[in-house]
Design brief:
This protein has 19 helices and no strands. The chain is mainly alpha-helical.
């Protein structure tokens, strides 16, 4: 019995260390994320048993394996095998990450929270680092713009990709990580609101203000809308039952909704400014929203060519670029954008079944978390589903791993198996 307890503690420490490394690897060069997945996978193999193996194949986790199978079948009619295998390689997470995440269930609730909060801590520290780096650079150079460029946020060191450039991070993906951190911290704040001192509450409000500032600086119109919606949903989860029975709660919720609406409008105004429904694909200098609409229109036209099976796992991008040329879409030909919409991207490459399956995965995971009252898990799905409307999220390893990992972690977090059950078994 003593030997079993010592063995359990030893294994648990390795599991914790592996997960800390995995959370940190989101901000390191890509190879470290792959190494962290391998390390966590090896650690998980030492802790997996018949019970946890069964959980790996439970609904809705098994939908990931079906999606991978669809992509694998898509290779059979793919001409561009190099791209096809590269896409499939990024999607290995669909089958391996749920197995890795199974070790999460042997940790107790406090340890699970520490791992999730560690991701938030790293995100927050890096956000301060990015802003601090830009401030120091301004004092050193006397300009907020890169040399010989000015007047546009693309060249502003305090904004968008320039802000996250010190670590070579994609600004919109960092916005996703920051939005998730915001929701996780806000959930903790509301859950333990009455136990916090005035000073701690003030520090929390400062942190929320800082997160909001960073979302604005990162110029993510999507998360300027999706994050406030997620906050409102979380507020209703916590206080919705009091909203219509106590006037102070109703007034508070309405006030917060008004403030968040103003925040969204401010964050999105650069995208909708001077917007016109007159879409001219040959235009050389369209606005951001017109570019996105042009990409989506071209994507839809590509889908019409083979809506049932798609072009093939590796041929989707080639088919889309070919359509840009046929439609004489100037920006599309020049920059060769992907679909900038994961729903359309799957449909272009692997047909209507891949599109429906991906959509179904998001819906069913969301409903599962609602049923389990795992509200942060639900909002992870909400944020990623929103993100997938404007980015081809599953084409990057950082996107695939984030989605599959955190949705799997919250599946195991919501399961009844905990640390005490593991010891007793």
């Amino acid at each position: 019995m003593i030997f079993m307890i010592i063995k359990y503690i030893f294994n648990r420490n390795f599991v914790l260390g592996g997960y800390y490394f995995l959370m940190l690897s989101f901000y390191l060069p890509l190879k470290f994320n792959s190494i962290a997945l391998i390390v966590c996978g090896l650690i998980s193999l030492f802790n997996i048993n018949k019970s946890t193996l069964k959980e790996v194949f439970i609904f809705p986790l098994n939908l990931f394996y079906i999606l991978f199978l669809v992509l694998l079948v898509g290779l059979l009619y793919t001409e561009n095998k190099v791209t096809g295998y590269a896409i499939l390689e990024r999607h290995y997470s669909l089958i391996f990450v749920p197995v890795i995440a199974s070790s999460f269930s042997i940790l107790n609730t406090k340890q699970q929270k520490r791992i999730l909060y560690f991701f938030t801590l790293v995100t927050t520290v890096l956000a301060f680092y990015f802003l601090g780096y830009a401030i120091v650079d301004y004092f050193n150079t006397g300009s907020i713009y890169i040399e010989n460029r000015s007047g546009h946020h693309l060249y502003n060191k305090f904004m968008h990709h320039r802000l996250t450039a010190p670590l070579g991070m994609h600004a919109i993906y960092f916005s996703l990580y920051l939005s998730f951190s915001f929701i996780l911290v806000l959930h903790h704040f509301m859950k333990y609101f009455h136990s916090h001192s005035i000073l701690i509450k003030v520090l929390f409000f400062f942190l929320f203000s800082f997160y909001s500032l960073m979302i604005i600086l990162l110029k993510s119109a999507l998360f300027s809308l999706a994050l406030p919606l997620a906050i409102i949903i979380l507020l209703f989860f916590h206080f919705g039952k009091y909203a219509f029975s106590k006037s102070k709660y109703l007034i508070g919720l309405i006030s917060i909704i008004i403030i968040l609406s103003a925040f969204s409008f401010y964050g999105m105004q650069s995208k909708i400014l001077n917007f016109s429904t007159n879409l001219n694909l040959t235009e050389e200098h369209p606005g951001p929203l017109k570019i996105r609409l042009g990409v989506w229109y071209s994507s839809w036209q590509t889908i019409q060519d083979n809506w049932l099976l798609g072009a093939g796992t590796g041929d989707g991008q080639d088919a889309l670029v070919e359509k840009y040329h046929k439609l004489d879409f100037y920006i599309g030909k020049r920059d060769q954008f992907n679909a900038h919409n994961m729903y359309l991207q799957y449909w272009i490459s692997n047909g209507i079944f891949a599109f429906l399956l991906y959509f179904l995965i998001l819906i069913l995971f969301g409903l599962y978390f609602l049923k389990k009252k795992e509200y942060v898990g639900f909002l992870v799905i909400f944020l990623f589903a929103s993100f997938s409307f404007t980015e081809s999220t599953m084409l990057r390893q950082s996107g695939v791993v984030f989605f599959v990992l955190f949705s799997s972690l919250y599946i195991f977090k919501s399961s009844k198996k905990n640390n005490e059950n593991f010891i007793s078994s």
